[in-house]
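Progress note, sequence design subtask.
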């Protein structure tokens, strides 16, 4: 006769609610807000490149502001937007791919873009305000991301 009373099953691992093994997650791509932030970075960066090209070509869409404290030549603003926009688009691609370094770099570059758009506000007011609002959302989405 056997004196065993209960089943001889292995107990679930510590911290596990059900004891079932977790399915492996695909770490190659992101989803949710970070995906949306990465897409906004990619598209917004490309639009900033176009904005830079317009300023370098001295297009007529920009408002002339004779008494502005942070006065730069329109061509200078164009190069600033072109370089920052290209970097934001490139890092946005890596945010979409799920690179952790890209989220931190994205926060930094989008912050620079936000400052540049604020300083550029008198030259292209409506677009600068829209871009600033989108930049704030992107910074927030990248900052609150947590890996599960």
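Output:
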């Amino acid at each position: 006769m056997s004196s065993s009373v209960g089943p001889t099953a292995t107990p679930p691992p510590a911290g596990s609610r059900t004891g079932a093994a977790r399915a492996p997650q695909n770490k190659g791509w992101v989803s949710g807000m970070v995906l949306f932030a990465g897409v906004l970075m990619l598209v917004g960066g490309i639009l900033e490149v176009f904005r830079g090209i317009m300023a370098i070509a001295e297009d007529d869409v920009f408002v002339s502001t004779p008494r502005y404290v942070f006065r730069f030549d329109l061509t200078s603003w164009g190069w600033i937007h072109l370089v920052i926009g290209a970097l934001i688009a490139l890092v946005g691609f890596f945010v979409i791919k799920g690179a952790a370094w890209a989220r931190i770099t994205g926060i930094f570059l989008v912050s620079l873009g936000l400052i540049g758009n604020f300083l550029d506000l008198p030259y292209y007011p409506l677009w600068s305000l829209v871009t600033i609002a989108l930049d704030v959302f992107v910074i927030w989405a990248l900052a609150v991301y947590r890996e599960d």
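The two ends are 49 Å apart (CA to CA). Work on this subtask will continue into the next period as scheduled.
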